[in-house]
Write a structure and sequence with these properties.
3 helices, globular
Length: 83
């Protein structure tokens, strides 16, 4: 199984990095597992949205950038729901 041109292990590592970067950028306080989850889920969700508009990206750098943006969006959505 591969996610956006990267394998499962790479998706976990890159997703964790993307989640950690998003955590630092958005000034939130989350743990390692939440960072990984936000990075991977953010990348998958944003890839799905971009694919719906006919845009496709592949590779680890694209996965990192898309995961970072997706995780930031998930953190912002979580904050909006909390309020």
């Amino acid at each position: 199984m591969s996610l956006n041109g990267v394998g499962i292990l790479a998706a976990i590592i890159i997703g964790g990095l993307a989640g950690w970067l998003a955590e630092r950028f958005m000034n939130s306080d989350m743990g390692l597992f939440m960072n990984i989850a936000l990075g991977i889920i953010g990348a998958v969700v944003l890839n799905f949205i971009l694919a719906a508009f006919g845009m496709a990206f592949a590779g680890w750098l694209a996965y990192l950038v898309i995961g970072f943006i997706g995780a930031c969006l998930l953190i912002a959505a979580g904050r909006a729901v909390k309020r």
